[in-house]
Amino acid sequence: MATGAEPGAVDARPRPLPALAEVVRTVAVLRGPGGCPWDGEQTHASLVRYLVEECFELVEAIESGDPEAMLEELGDVLYQVLFHADLASATPGAGFDVDDVARRLNAKLVSRHPHVFGDREASSAEEVVAFWDDLKAAEKPHRTSILDGVPMGMPALALADKVLGKAAKADVHVEPAAVPATEEALGAELLALVSGAREAGLDPERALRAAIRGVTEAVRAAEGATPPVE
């Protein structure tokens, strides 16, 4: 079917999404009167463990390269979003539903991409990354540190990578160690470090988190902020 778009271009025109509307209704039925007792008892807090599990299962599906597994796990993650949104719609004081979630997301996507929806220019991913921090700072003026908004509950390795990237912007650097040339070799070396830590009775997760705290304190000191009390 002809769309009028240039060859190879993405047709960005809206299209009906009946299945999405149907699953929103299904979640509402499950949580509504006469629905599933388990669903009806859940809270935002009680659902956290399932959200974390589903995200990790999606990561595993992506890494496996299995499209069918990805399809299923993306659905499970979507279910978590719809569940939380429906729960919020029925919670006094929350005042939002899935449409509000989508509206807020769309507004963020448009504001974070002025090179697509506005008059700013960016011809490479590097240029986009370079001005994202400025956009975020304008959107969230209450943040006083480049570390604000970093989820400190992330797994230690992912958190270390995130914090080091932020720290470099505050001119706080950690001397890099020599690393192997491939990710396969790097993975083996990291695994060997964990094995050595186990043999020595050390907790590598806790050790890395302690080192990260040192970096965050150095960043906040460089920014002139007082390290938060834990």
UniProtKB/TrEMBL annotation:
GO BP of this protein: dATP catabolic process; dGTP catabolic process; dTTP catabolic process; dUTP catabolic process; response to stress; TTP catabolic process; UTP catabolic process
Pfam families tied to this protein: MazG
GO molecular function: nucleoside triphosphate diphosphatase activity
Domain NTP pyrophosphohydrolase MazG-like: 42-117
Coiled-coil residue spans: none
Gene3D superfamilies with a match to the protein in the record: MazG-like (1.10.287.1080)
Superkingdom per UniProt: Bacteria
NCBIfam families reported for this sequence: mazG
Protein name, per record: MazG family protein
Organism: Agromyces seonyuensis
Lineage of the organism: Bacteria, Bacillati, Actinomycetota, Actinomycetes, Micrococcales
